[in-house]
Amino acid sequence: MFLNVNSEIGKLKRVLLHRPGRELERITPQYLEELLFDDIPWLKRMRAEHDAFALTMANRGCEIYYYENLLQEVLEKGDLKEKFIDDVLKGTKLVNPCLEQAIREYLISLPPQKVVKVAIEGLHKEDVPDLKWEYRLVDYVKSEYPFYINPMPNLYFTRDPGAVIGNGLVINKMKTPARNRETMFLYYIYKYHPLFNQSNIPLYYNYTDPYSIEGGDILVLNERTVAIGCSERTSAWGIETLSERLFQQSKIEKVLAIQIPFTRAYMHLDTVFTMLNYDQFTIYPGVKNNIKVYLLTKGVNSPKITPINSLEEGLKKVLKLPSVELIESGGGTEITAAREQWNDSTNTLAIGPGVVITYDRNEYTNETLRKRGIEVIEIEGSELVRGRGGPRCMSMPLFRENL
Ligand SMILES: NC(=O)NCCC[C@H](N)C(=O)O
C-alpha cells in the first residue's frame, strides 16, 4: 500500500511537500489578499527553513515526496502535457481566446519540466514580452493586471488540497480560486503517477465536487473516526457529502464535525486544534467556548446527526477513552495565546505518538507542551509563517505506521 493514514499520530513514514519557489517572489502588496497572504516572505531564508523542516522528518525515517517532482514525472511520461496545459488555462482569468491560444502555443513549446514550473510560479507578463495576439477591448481595459497565469504561493501548504484517509484519498474542493490549481495537480498525480495509479486507491471526494472542504479541517482520529472542522473554508454540505461517502466506501463509521468561528485567523480547524498523543490534544483557548460539536453516523437516507455537549465529550466518545487532555496553547495568558496562535502555535505536526514538530517562535506553547510530556522538535519559521500556516499545514502525510 502506498497510502496509509489511520491516525494523526502514527509514526510518519511518507509525506508530500512542496519546496517554496519563485511563486513566493511574485507576491506584491497589492495582491496579498487575493493570494491569501498577509506578508511577503524572503524566499532564500524561507527555503532554508523548509529544507530544515524536511530534514527533520527525513532524519526520523520519513520519505519525502515533492509535488514538483511527481508532476514532472507525470508529464514526462505519457502524452499529458497538452491536457495539463489546457487544465491550467481553464483556471485562469484569460478572457480573450486569441491571447489564451498564444499562451497555449508558448507553453506547448516548453519541455515538461518548464511547464510544471510555469504552472506553479505563474506566468507574468514580463516573462513573455514578445507574445503576440489580436488585441480586443478587454486587453486594453485589463492591461494593468500583471499575470497571465497567477502564481501559487500557497502550494507549500500541502495539507489543504488533499487528505489520506485509511488507504484512500480525498481531493478537496477549495473555497477560493487562489488555491484551485493545487487540487488539479493532486488529481494528476493520483490519476497518472505510477506510485498512485497502480494500487487502486479509492477517491472519496474530488475537486470537481461542488461543496468546499479543505485538508486543514480533516483530522484522522483513528481507523474508524475522522474529525472535520466546519470553518471559514469547509462547508457543512461538504462535511455531510464526504461523511456519507466514507460511511459507504471506507472503514470510517463516525465523523466528528467541529464547528469553529468563521474567521481568517482560524481558517481551518488545525489552526486552533491538533492531536499530539493517544489522549492529548492542543487547543487555542480563545475558541474553547466557541466550538460546537456534532457526531455524524450512518443514517437511513443521509447521515444521522447528534449534537454533542463539548469537544472533550465528543473526543472521549469516539476514541472510547475515559478522559482526554486538552492542553491550552499560549502558556496561560490571553495575549500570548492569541499572538502565538496567529503564528501557528496550535498547528503542530505529530510525527509519532507524543512527538511533534512546531515553530521555535512559539516559546510559551512549546514550553507548556513539554511540561505535559510531549517531545517538541522545534524548527525555525520566521519566513514560512508569513503565509499563515505551520508544520501541519505544510505537510500531507501519505503513510503513517498503524498504532
Ligand atoms: N491548514 C492550514 O491552516 N493551512 C494554512 C493555509 C494558509 C494559506 N495562506 C491560506 O489562506 O489558505
UniProtKB/TrEMBL annotation:
Under the heading PANTHER family, the entry gives: ARGININE DEIMINASE (PTHR47271:SF2)
**Catalytic function, reaction form:** L-arginine + H2O = L-citrulline + NH4(+)
Gene label:
arcA
Sorted keywords for this record are:
Arginine metabolism, Cytoplasm, Hydrolase
| Source domain of life | Bacteria
This protein is called Arginine deiminase
What family is this protein classified in?
A: Belongs to the arginine deiminase family.
Please give the HAMAP family that the UniProt record associates with this protein: Arg_deiminase
Q: Tell me the GO molecular function terms.
A: arginine deiminase activity
Q: What is its EC number?
A: 3.5.3.6
**Which biological pathway?**
Amino-acid degradation; L-arginine degradation via ADI pathway; carbamoyl phosphate from L-arginine: step 1/2
Active-site residues, record numbering mapped to chain: C393 (amidino-cysteine intermediate)
Main subcellular localisation: cytoplasm
The places in or outside the cell where this protein is found are:
Cytoplasm
Which NCBIfam families does the protein's record reference? arcA, PRK01388.1
> Cellular component GO terms, alphabetically?
cytoplasm
Entry's Gene Ontology BP terms: L-arginine deiminase pathway
